[in-house]
Amino acid sequence: MDPTNSISEGVFAFNPKPKKNAKNKKAPNEFAFFKHNDWYKSFDSVWSEIHQKVVEEENKITSELQSKVNKFAHSAESSTDTIPTIIMLTGVNLSDHKQLFKNIDDYILNNSKSFTATLWADSCTNIRNMIESLVYQIETTGGEPDSEYLEHDEDSDSEEHQYISIKRANQTLPHLVNWFNNLEANQAEEPTKKKSKTETEITTSPRIIIILPDFEAHDEKVLQDFILILSGYGSKLPIVFIFGVASMISAVHDTLPNHVISKLSLELFKTPRSKDFLNSTIDSVFLTPDCPFMISGKVLNFLNEVFLCYDFSLKGLITSLKFCIMDHFFESGCTQYCWPRKNLADVINNLAPEQLTNLKRVPSFAELIEKRKRTNDPPPPKTAQDYKNLIIEKLKELHESIKVFYVGLHCLQILVQDLPERDLPLGSDLRELYIKAMISTIIESNEYEECMKTLRFSSKPALIEKLKKILDYLKKPEVQLPTVENCRRKVERLLKKIETASPEVNSASESPSKSPSKKMLQKRGDLSQYCLELQQKKMSEFEIVREEVLKTLTSEVFNELLVKLTKLPFHEELIYNKRSAVKEAMIGMPRGAVVRALANPQKALQCNCCKLRDEGEILKTMPDICIVYKLHLRWATLINVYDWMLSFKSIVEPKSEDDEISPEIHARFTQAVADLQFLGYIKHTNVKKDHVVRLTFER
Amino acid sequence: MADGSFYFHLHPLKEKLTKKYPRRDNEINTLLGLFAVPEEQMLPSLIVYGLSSTGKTSILLELLTLVKVKHCVVNCIEAYTNRLLLKPIIETFLGQERCETENIRCDSIMQFVHLLKAESKSNKTFRESPHIIVLKNCNKLSEIQLQAFARISELTEKDNLCCIMITQIVPSQFNFNYPIQTIVFPQYSKDDLLCILWSQRPPEYPEEFYRDYLNLFLGYFLHVCRDLKELKNWVKIVFNKYVEPIEKKELKLSDSNLRSLLFRAIKPYLQKITNCVYLGTDFSIKGAVEPESKLGNSAIDLPMYTKYLLIAAYLASFNSPKYDKRLYLKGSDKAKKRAAIKHTAEKSVKQCLGPKAFSLNRLLAIFYAICDEPVNLTVNIYSQIASLIELRLMMHTNSDNLDEPKFKTTAPFSCVEDVGKNIKFDLKNYLLGV
Known about the structure:
By secondary structure, chain A is α/β, with parallel strands linked by helices.
């Protein structure tokens, strides 16, 4: 703003200058501040790699659905009576739907010449808005390609209106019909222009596809009118509806009465279950040895719980994982030196002295050094180079153990995944096995034991098939490691053994025992003896081998493969294990947070004056409301307000002897009590006039 | 009117219309009497009343086109602004190009009346040629608009202007202050339907065979549906199923007891499919053929705690708060049983009365009582309440009161029961008197 040079008094209007390049303005990168830090660089590369994989995975799952929807939308006959309608049962993970429908929208736009409009409930409060928004979106999709890009970018929505503007009065359906007819006429005139592009496209006439992603949130009346109006245009415009229904199909029938629904011909599509999304994303993105980031079993378990128990939201899960990665790289300063697998030696050898010191301080490594110093066997490293060599050695060991661990996990999955459902104590998904194997030694757990019990009943072909599958997996080129090689040989041996084992009970040894047994069956004791014998003798050769196979698998294969990673040095640097940090950051607990802030204000205020030695302590320096809160905990249900005030005074002014309460103290106390009442901790009562009732109690 | 030339003119039209629209002779006659010679004095306004798919609009429009009278049809649902209602009429009457070149705007009824009045004064051909406005679904118009259109010829001082209002609502609902002639299109009777459906029989089957089928079909479907459009749709679908054994060569047309055999084959299908009428065509066929998993409510897949929240909401809505203590406090099993027996009668009435509103605190208290695990009260729980509302399984009853929000469940019993079964929670144990 220029300073005004006028000496006269007056009001000057400064018209704001239009901002240049407003259209190119991007949201500032919130991490720009950390751009030059090492941890940020490595975080950024890791995150972008993972993010890309997640997106790929998502596309892989939904691509089938997308193409199906697209195909239907273009092949459905639009008769004059009814509008073809796709009902997509999307599941209740509402926060992911935006992405899902955006993908579908993009897919349709990329693969056909159709026009799409996405109508969210919050922008369609009445029929007029709805139709205007529809017409606007349809007519602008035909615009220049870059404007189309902008339209899908949420932030630039408002800017986009400047570029293609349609008079609001013209945003009506008759106008749309004219526009569409003109368009068709134009396209008929110059068919050669787009020919190169159309080869990959579905060769049908363009459709007008209207997507309502949140069907339930739309107002019933508006929706009914909308459908009735559009059904009148069914003969003039090739309209296709896509309704995203989150709950149940009956929602459609509850919302639309018969005379409306008879205008539609419905077709049902189902998105994959959100649990499938979870499994595939976690399994193929995070639970692979290639993923440059590992989560401990506890954290993954926690994230799983949030997903399955609270919201089914993949978006939320990915955000939490992003936080984990960021927190991991930020907190420990040396993670970035531990990750590169190929040039690990170079990285470690080129470390600056202070970075090396940091690495030395990693608890699990320090422990190892400490142990070596105590026992001197092998002797502890002395020079910096010695240290570096040791670090390289240990890191390589860890990397290899991780690979082996995953191999073991896959083998275990093959073994247990198709057990009958009630006998699935370990779970069938890789993530469930991962959680259990990371938290504890899985082969010692009860669940594993139960699995083995069930497996002891499996038939010969089933067991052979499983062993063959395991063997096939172990033969894959990407899992070739010495330990794995070893295990493979063992499994091969077991397989051979079981294949040759005969399922027959060895009859030669049994037949002679039959005749004498009949004689001996005269006493009751003999009968039980006989039964026991029969049981033991029933073990055929196959059964004995089966027993042996399972035992060997446990003790020699899985014991070798499923290494306890958290016992190896440097595991903290590779495996993220801060459940509490994730919990605090990702799960908001409003009531809990208020209670904690009131009980210990130092945590919220980060000041030095309020440090508490124990929970019950009350300091003068604390905010009034905290003092009042802590005092009120001392009463039972009813609190005498006057007593309360006196105790308040005694804390705020411990030195004054007189009983007189100054107006200042009175006011502060009243204010604090009012605040506490507002927060819902106390309320007034008519039972005793000068008392208040306490409303919250600890469990 | 009785001279021969009139009937000579009338006959071909009547023949044509009655052939295309069977069993509507009376209505076609009346309409022809009114509009066959549009140059004669016309009614100022007319109401055409009939339920959906009784042929009102199609007969009327066909007739108006045949007698070549200038008319304009507006669907009133679409007319959410005055301009959308009036502009098409003006454009038809005055010509679209003229409206554009002269930039004629028409945003209110008054403007509309003035425009037409001025036009009829200045333009002789306009004044003398008959014009008709057809308003479909006229019940969507406002009171003032309706009254104005009912007397439009009086207001514009143009005698041969008629407004025909088509409605599916009984005309006595509109309180016009003077009588307007009404033509009622009655619903098709069984015989009418038989006749209409008969006219569309597939040629490859003998007539007798198809008549038998139609009788069987209508016997089942007339109980649930009299809508001609819907029936036309179903008659094809069911027929394909009906003749399936013949197409597959399992039965022959010459079989003696063909009828009963076919009936036995189709009966279960018919019983199932009559439940699916009005559900939207394509999908319901599949729904009827495939097991009910697709149609059923078990399709709903909620996160763990949301399931408990939904059940808690249902219990809160259908149990009176005074039994909460008995139901949810541990160690009061005896009381629970007694309560359940004692209040059976009271409860069954309550079920019929629909859900009651409950406060957020009560919902959370019940949630914690029925959910065995210790759950922290996190924002995720709150957001799940919001998403239940968005899914229309719950609703906000007093959204203006922020301090004490109240909710109701709108989820059906079967849905909540299914959810309960899924987490091994027996809803009936907690629901008094069911």
